């Protein structure tokens, strides 16, 4: 008597019809009736008769995509220096001095609420700077002159 060992690959071949000729010869010599195999899905484990049930696979980990979320912070103080050419603004707060990078997307608001320009910010003016605190460079998002 011949013993037929069934593995996942064989089950896949049996259900696809590629191994029906060899399976037909094997089932004629087998003493036990064979169960009809269903096509295994990639996520579901295959149950082989006479063996313990396989443990289900854990779901694959999702790829980690580095998504940086900006940390928006506000600082108020007196302008101690401004360089329009280098796009830098130095602000003296109560106990600290902070340097901000000014970009083309930085919004400047005058004391009367109207839109202004970088050149409207003068040394000695009281301002409130809203900036992105992510990374080493502090990028000013808006400057409001008080």
Structure keywords:
146 residues; 2 domains; alpha+beta; 5-stranded mixed barrel; OB fold (Dihydrolipoamide Acetyltransferase, E2P); 32% strand; 2 helices; single chain; 6 strands
What order do the helices and strands come in, and which of them pair?
Layout (H helix, E strand, L loop, with lengths): L7 H9 L3 H10 L42 E12 L4 E5 L4 E13 L5 E2 L9 E7 L6 E7 L1
Parallel strand pairs: 3-6
Antiparallel strand pairs: 1-2, 1-5, 2-3, 3-4, 5-6
What fold name goes in the CATH topology slot of the largest domain?
A: OB fold (Dihydrolipoamide Acetyltransferase, E2P)
Count of individual domains: 2
Annotated CATH homologous superfamily of the largest domain: Copper binding periplasmic protein CusF
Quick one: how many beta strands?
6
The rounded Rg comes to 36 Å
What structural category arises from helix and sheet content? Answer: alpha+beta
Overall geometric form: rod-shaped
Helix fraction, binned, reads 10-25%
Name the average pLDDT. Answer: 75
Task: Report how far apart the termini are.
Answer: 97 Å
Give, in spatial order, the strands making up the sheet with the most strands: 1-2-3-6-5
Largest sheet: 5 strands, mixed, barrel
Give, in order, the helices and strands: HHEEEEEE
* CATH architecture identity of the largest domain: Beta Barrel
CATH class group of the largest domain:
Mainly Beta
Helix count, DSSP H or I runs of 4 or more residues: 2
Low-confidence stretches: 18-23
Beta fraction of the residues?
Answer: 25-35%
């Amino acid at each position: 008597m011949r013993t037929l060992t069934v593995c996942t690959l064989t089950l896949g071949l049996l259900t696809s019809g590629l191994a029906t000729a060899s399976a037909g010869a094997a089932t004629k010599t087998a003493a036990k009736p064979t169960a009809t195999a269903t096509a295994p899905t990639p996520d579901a484990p295959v149950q082989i008769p006479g063996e313990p049930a396989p443990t289900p696979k854990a779901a694959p980990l999702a790829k980690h995509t580095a998504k940086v979320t900006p940390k928006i912070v506000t600082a108020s103080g007196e302008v101690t220096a401004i360089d329009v050419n280098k796009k830098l603004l130095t602000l003296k707060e109560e106990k600290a001095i902070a340097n901000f990078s000014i970009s083309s997307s930085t919004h400047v608001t005058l004391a009367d609420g109207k839109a202004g320009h970088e050149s409207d910010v003068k040394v000695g003016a009281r301002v409130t700077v809203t900036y992105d605190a992510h990374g080493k460079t502090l990028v000013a998002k808006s400057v409001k002159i008080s």
